[in-house]
């Protein structure tokens, strides 16, 4: 192998089932994984009672016993994961089905993974301790197209110290990701935009951070193309199942992307922005990448030029350096086009909060993401980027 070719690994991915109306076969999926008459813990977003009821009826009609758990919030608490794990134990569940956005899927995956263990969720934060290998089966049914939690080996949660941390490992991988565009139709325009931007950031970071992975790049670049072509349509025409479906596919692909290579500054600071200002995760990482993208592109123009082309920047006759410089303005224009709010002033944040934002970005729980970024992030860099995030209009 030529010395210039990178060494990389591309891990096995979560099985994916996609189709309009595909959720109607959920009971068959549970039977295939656990046998007939299985006990199911259905972890559902509390804001989706009709979808939870519909999937519960599908499971019951297929002969399964169902217990519903809905105590989930954005950036779920470790104690909520523990409660879901206890609910699975008390129901003698063989499988946990998560239906909702990323926080719900993260809770479902994590609860299924630790349900047979004696330790609480906080015990596994930041992968300090290995996850138990004897967890319950798990199916993820996303109702957003953004986090990619259905195809990752990570669950993000808030620990007892109010730190936004993560658990990671093979036991968190879902046994099936079930993608049904019909389940995303009711998502409001603002959340459709924010979650779609989350998927876009995943795809961009996964193919531009330190870890070179040509196989992963193929997935990420196509995810970017799908999002560029479909997110605005999904926002403006929520009943368009073709656009919704394309976004679900893109989000799942981007999830595979970050599962193989990780994330960078957008997530390190995006997590911090969630702590400091309680900003929705998708919007937070989108705004943080906006502030850091031109700076990152200077470190590797060729890889960022490829992202620019995938995003739709005209490439004919343009050298990579020029395309890389065009990426940040094109990305900013795309965020505005899909209606993502850029200014954080209405959220109660101002440039005076930059030092606090930079401080949390440099906290230990964000180190792995900082270390993966294409450029080393010193405290001064974090402060400069934080000021850009908080002063944007």
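^ Assign residues to that structure.
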């Amino acid at each position: 192998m030529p010395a210039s070719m990178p060494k990389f690994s591309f891990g096995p991915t979560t099985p994916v089932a996609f189709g309009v109306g595909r959720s109607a076969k959920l009971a068959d999926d549970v039977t295939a994984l656990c046998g007939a008459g299985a006990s199911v813990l259905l972890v559902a977003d509390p804001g989706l009672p009709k979808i939870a009821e519909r999937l519960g009826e599908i499971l019951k009609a297929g002969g399964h016993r169902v217990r519903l758990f809905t105590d989930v919030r954005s950036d779920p608490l470790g104690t909520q994961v523990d409660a879901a794990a206890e609910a699975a134990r008390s129901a003698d569940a063989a499988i946990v089905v998560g239906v909702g956005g990323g926080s719900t899927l993260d809770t479902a995956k994590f609860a299924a993974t630790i349900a047979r263990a004696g330790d609480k969720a906080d015990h596994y934060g930041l992968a300090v301790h290995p996850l138990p290998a004897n967890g319950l089966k798990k199916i993820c049914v996303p109702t957003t197209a953004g986090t990619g939690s259905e195809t990752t080996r990570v669950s993000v949660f808030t620990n007892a110290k109010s730190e936004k941390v993560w658990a990671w490992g093979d036991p968190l991988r879902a046994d099936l990701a079930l993608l049904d565009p019909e389940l995303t139709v009711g998502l409001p325009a603002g959340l459709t935009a924010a979650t779609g931007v989350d998927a876009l950031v995943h795809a961009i970071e996964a193919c531009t951070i330190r870890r070179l992975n040509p196989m992963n790049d193929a997935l990420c670049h196509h995810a970017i193309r799908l999002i560029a072509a479909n997110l605005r349509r999904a926002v403006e025409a929520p009943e368009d199942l073709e656009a919704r479906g394309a976004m679900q596919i893109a989000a799942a692909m981007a999830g595979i992307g970050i599962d193989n290579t990780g994330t960078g500054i957008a997530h390190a600071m995006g997590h911090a922005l969630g702590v400091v200002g309680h900003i929705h995760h998708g919007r937070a990482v989108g705004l943080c990448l906006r502030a850091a993208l031109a700076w990152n592109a200077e470190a590797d123009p060729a890889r960022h030029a490829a992202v620019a082309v995938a995003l739709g920047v005209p490439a004919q006759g343009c050298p990579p350096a020029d395309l890389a410089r065009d990426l940040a303005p094109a990305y900013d224009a795309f965020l505005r086009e899909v209606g993502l709010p850029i200014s954080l002033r209405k959220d109660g944040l101002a440039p005076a909060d930059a030092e606090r934002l930079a401080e949390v970005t440099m906290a230990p729980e964000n180190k792995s993401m900082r270390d993966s970024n294409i450029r080393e992030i010193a405290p001064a860099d974090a402060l400069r980027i934080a000021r850009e995030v908080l002063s944007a209009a």
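The beta strands are 16-18, 39-44, 65-69, 95-100, 137-142, 154-158, 164-168, 176-179.
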